[in-house]
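Section 3.1: Structural characterization of target chains.
Under the original work plan, the team committed to producing a structural model for every single-chain target entering the pipeline before any wet-lab resources were allocated. The record below documents one such target. The sequence was received from the expression subgroup and is listed exactly as submitted; it comprises 394 residues.
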Amino acid sequence: MLAYLPPALRDLQLPLRLRLWDGKQIDLGPEPRVTMVVKDPSLVAQLAHPSLAALGGAYVEGRLELEGPISAVIELGDALSQALIDDEPVAESQRSAHDKATDAAAISYHYDLSNDFYALWLDREMVYSCAYFETGSEDLEQAQQAKLRHLCRKLRLQPGERLLDVGCGWGGLARFAAREFGVEVHGITLSHAQLQLARQRVADEGLASQVQLELLDYRDLPQDGRFDKVVSVGMFEHVGHANLPLYCQRLFGAVKSGGLVMNHGITAKYTDGRPVARGGGEFIGRYVFPEGELPHLATMTRELSDAGLEVVDVENLRLHYARTLEHWSARLETQLEQAAQLVPEQALRIWRLYLAGCAYGFARGWMSLHQILAVKPHADGSHDLPWTRADLYR
């Protein structure tokens, strides 16, 4: 039976079972926790060099089935690739040219999938970004409320101020800021499905006089400094390295002198953009976030600074995002039958791997998550921020 296997696989000791297309089974170690069902004979040869992109792609395309807890699937997939693939190359990641049409199509691919599908595993506000766990014991609902409050407090929002929400999603932050902090919010998105539901929720909560949402590209933002504060959550990952200077310039132009800008998003592990996770990033780029690019924290702070914004505070929430993704993955796994009625089979396979895989990756430092607070200084270089962070935690 071992004749089926490439030589490199034969000496592994992993709790993994291979079930072949002819029904034969091979255990690669004692007490298997996951069964990999190989449906395509040509896949066996690829198992000698099992990148996460190749394994994930085979599952998405139905050439491979996976039996066992999804968290164990990800762990053993990584162990398999780690054992058989050399260290990752030191090379620049491939970068895309981002124009309005390309970005709009990429956003639609990911975010217009199905509002009902996202509602299955997100919190009740449908906040699709890293939560904030003040003690680590909070449930997802509590942690997402804490995140929204944390952002608003960092922005030192005051009643009557105008807040710009760049990439407003389903409007959870916009509604929270209007409801809890008394501000007027203008949100923009490129997702038609998100905008429709977000506007409905604004109306249902009686917030139409405080919250206006529209379909708008960040490149078309007004540049007259009309907003007191700007927040951008989970947005700059879609901008692309080439457009980061323009993105930061647009944030600078939208906010008034002395105003604050909060950028919350995923950041790369390496400053030189080398790939991580033995194909994990390639899988995400191919199936989850087409055209997505992760800048390093150093890149983002440089671009904000070059645009004229002064970086005044940075917080790393990497482990918070690992915990958030664990919640999302667990919630999806308990509702697979219902999810299968809402999205195509291939999409569900993608999201199962994506959520569990990203939880694993964030926990192990493959990428990070930073909140970067910046201020647009007055002409004399001054600003009105408190001397310490003490007001955030009162």
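The longest helix spans residues 345-363.
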